[in-house]
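Following up on my earlier message about (2S)-2-hydroxybutanedioic acid. Here are the inputs again, as you asked, copied directly from the submission form:
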Amino acid sequence: MLNRIVKPSISGVPKAVKCFSTTPQNNFKVAVAGASGGIGQPLSLLLKQNPLVTELSLYDVVHTPGVAADLSHIETPAKVKGYVGAESICDAFKGCDVVVIPAGVPRKPGMTRDDLFNTNASIVRDIAKACVEACPKAMLAIISNPVNSTVPIASEIFKKAGKYDPKRIFGVTTLDVVRANTFIAEAKCLDPLTVKVPVIGGHAGVTIMPLISQASPKVSFSESELKALTVRIQDAGTEVVKAKAGAGSATLSMAYAGARFAIALLRGLKGEANVIECAFVKSDVTEAPYFATPLLLGKGGIEKNLGLGTLSAFEQQLLKAGIPELIASIKKGEQFVNK
Ligand SMILES: NC(=O)c1ccc[n+]([C@@H]2O[C@H](COP(=O)([O-])OP(=O)(O)OC[C@H]3O[C@@H](n4cnc5c(N)ncnc54)[C@H](O)[C@@H]3O)[C@@H](O)[C@H]2O)c1
Ligand SMILES: O=C(O)C[C@H](O)C(=O)O
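Thanks, got it. Here's what our run produced:
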């Protein structure tokens, strides 16, 4: 397939300066919705650097022409285009393989993620409606909080339109995994790149359930250390919110985690074997109708839900403690669309 590097249209400068071939399997269009924000900008930068991305569509209600012009000067193949305002949303999403959604407001100190519901629920609903129209087969990677409710919201929008495929809608919980890997590596003096810890459940407080008993390499902690580590992973978002003192929540680590997850989706789409990431998805592994577990990703999105594995007694308690809040947040999202 032909691809073009397009330079900004400055008068007298030829537009297409080089043509080259890419295979269809390495030729993906990705959109970022909320691309001008604290997460959106560094996330877009990371995606621009990935060779699997050949078109990068930046959508926001402000500033995307500037962000797109800036990124378009980077010497990588992805063609970058900015779309600003609701009237351009379908053009932005048309033909997308993956839509990553960090649109919406972040927390300030003292707020819970659920306190963002009133603002972010309608933002995610409207973006999901545009996806139904413009790219119903795209993989959706939802970052906007509260993830435990925004994923059910997007899913209900797809159901209403008769376009729902539960294998293609994901709540991004990768940052919980990234944090668990980092904190455990720090505690055990390990290379963080070698540590892998599944984190299951949801993405808020007690619904975040790290499975340290399943860490690779195997690690052991006393009961009190295990408790302290688990609480730190559960409260890590709040740790950043407090440190930023009113200037928002995690953006750079989230951009890293969001790019890692979006690229995992592309690697799956491309047919790469053994691509595994945790994410919050429609699920029947517990009584909660959505639940994060490790997933095998493939050409159709979720190829296989890898489930809970064997939980320690401590982790069974975490599961018991987190499920009621998770079910309530899911219900709240579903009712928002179906009221
Ligand atoms: N899932 C996670 O692990 C995780 C981690 C960090 C942050 N978050 C969440 O991500 C969201 C974004 O955080 P941020 O720090 O980037 O916030 P931000 O305020 O810096 O950026 C949000 C962007 O969304 C845009 N936006 C607002 N309404 C929009 C709409 N209707 N359509 C498109 N874009 C719209 C804004 O213009 C802004 O550019 C928050 O809800 C935050 O809680 C989730
Ligand atoms: O904590 C937040 O509000 C943002 C995000 O969910 C996080 O975990 O960093």
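One observation from looking it over: The chain is about 40% helix and 20% strand. Hope that helps, and feel free to reply on this thread.
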